[in-house]
Design brief:
Strand content: 25-35%
CATH architecture: 2-Layer Sandwich
Oligomer: single chain
CATH class: Alpha Beta
Number of strands: 9
Structural class: alpha+beta
Helix content: 40-55%
Order of helices and strands: EHEHEEHEEEEEHHH
Number of helices: 6
CATH topology: Beta Polymerase, domain 2
Amino acid sequence: MEYKKKIDTKEYRTLFFEAYKYVNSVIDDYSFYFRLIGSAKRNLVLDKPNKGFDFDYQIIFYQSLVGEGSDKLIEIKDRFRHAFDDFFVEKGYEYGEDSTSAITIKMLDGDKIYHSYDVTLMTPNSVDKLCIFKYNDNEKTEMGLNEMRKSAMFKEKYKKIKGAQKWKELRDEYKIRQEEWNGERKSFSILMSVVNDMKL
C-alpha cells in the first residue's frame, strides 16, 4: 500500500468535476454544490491492494431538506445515482452502488477495483450543521438524516496539525489504519478517527 502523487490523481478529480457539471444540468430543481473531502483533499491517497484508490466527495444542498420523509430522500438519492450512472457507465465504470450512506462508483481492472468515488448527499439543518442521507435499516427501506457531530471536532483538530513531525505522524498512522481495514471502511471515516485521536 503506497501513497499516490497528486499529479497521478489529477485526471480523476477533473473527471468528477465533469460528472458534477452533468448531474447539475440534469437535476435542476435543487441547488447544490460539491466538495472533495478526506484523504484526496489532503494528498493522502493510498493505493490499496485489490481496492485501488478512492476519492470522497460530498454533494451539499443549499436548502435544508430536514422534514422530508424517507420516501422522498430515497427518491432524491436514486435520482443522483442514476444521473452519475448516465455519465460514468459509458466511460467504463460500474453502475453506482447504493450503499448505506454513499453512492459508490467503481472502475474495475479485471476482478479488482482500480479506483472508486464515494459520493454522499448532505443537507444543512436548522442550526447550520450538516446532515447526511443514511439508510436506517439493512433492507434500505427507511432513510433519515444523521447529523455529522464528529465532523466539527475533526475540522478544528485538523487546523491545529502543524509541522513536519505531526504531518508524518498523521500520514504514518493513516496508512497503518488503512492497511488494517484494507478498504472495508470509508477513507474519510478513517482519516477522521486518526485526526480525532491525535494528541496536539
